[in-house]
């Protein structure tokens, strides 16, 4: 059984259409930028970013404009995980008309909207973006391709683990021995996560950490466990019938393996916070702000 995201990645060429042009042909037509002076357009900011990404622009990517136009002048930039209605409202208050979001704006990986045209929620959000002339650009594939991975570095920095990770393999962190309970508490406190799900013995010593923010999928997570042999996998999101069950069976077999599930948004938001400090020096004439979209869940 495949998740919608993974199934999409296998069939993207069938649905990419003209939106890819925004991420390739249009952007490559923008002149090479030298030193940034004065105001910039949305397209120029995107082009500036893409020049730091190996292999960019990609011929197939979900990192396209979801609203606005490449030619509009930028009054301010907001980085965030999700361009929610609340984030859009906060961007307006900040005087920013360019939102760089890590995840989809319109509730599916490809941001296809034909199926939502008559939906009141979609219409409300689109009208809000149009009213305030806000451009939204997804920055997912490119940010993960950046060297180092922008999301991974944001999480490592937030956790204070910069000196513990392997530069050749940034997903592996080697810590001084710490119990699973104390490790869980550290992650919660540093990333501001109210509650997390854990599979394992809270007294288990943990030293070799496999850090995989976001939703990389069960096969990738399990494959990394097999390859890296960690004491614990710390990830953003799991399909409950995949990785969690693998860890449970591994523990029953006798393996000292645990799992910490942070939640998708909390696990990658630090990467978009890191974008704020990474991007600001590159666009000195434009204010870059991070607005946290946060988790949509209450825990009762």
Quaternary structure annotation: single chain
Average pLDDT reading: 89
Helical residue percent band:
25-40%
What portion of the residues fall into strands of 2 or more residues? 15-25%
Strand order of the largest sheet: 5-6-8-9-10-7
Sheet with the most strands, sense and barrel status? 6 strands, mixed
What is the count of helical runs?
Answer: 12
* CATH structural architecture of the largest domain: 3-Layer(aba) Sandwich
Structural class: alpha/beta
Estimated radius of gyration: 20 Å
Number of separate structural domains: 2
Order of secondary-structure elements: HHHHEEHEHEHHEEHEEHEHEHE
Q: So what's the overall shape?
A: globular
Describe the structure.
The protein is of the alpha/beta class. It has 2 domains: 4-147 and 269-290, NIF3 (NGG1p interacting factor 3)-like (Udp-n-acetylmuramoylalanyl-d-glutamate--2,6- Diaminopimelate Ligase, Chain: A, domain 1, 3-Layer(aba) Sandwich); 150-262, NIF3 (NGG1p interacting factor 3)-like (Udp-n-acetylmuramoylalanyl-d-glutamate--2,6- Diaminopimelate Ligase, Chain: A, domain 1), CATH 3.40.1390.30. It is 38% helix and 17% strand. It contains 12 helices and 11 strands. It has helices at 4-11, 19-23, 25-28, 42-50, 85-94, 120-131, 141-145, 150-159, 180-191, 218-228, 243-253, 264-279; strands at 65-67, 77-80, 98-101, 135-138, 165-166, 169-179, 197-199, 205-212, 232-235, 258-261, 288-290. Strands 5-6-8-9-10-7 form a 6-stranded mixed beta sheet, with helices on both faces. A 5-stranded mixed beta sheet has the order 1-4-3-2-11. Helix 6 links the parallel strand 3 (98-101) and strand 4. Keywords: Metal-binding. This is NGG1p interacting factor NIF3. One of its GO terms (cellular component) is cytoplasm.
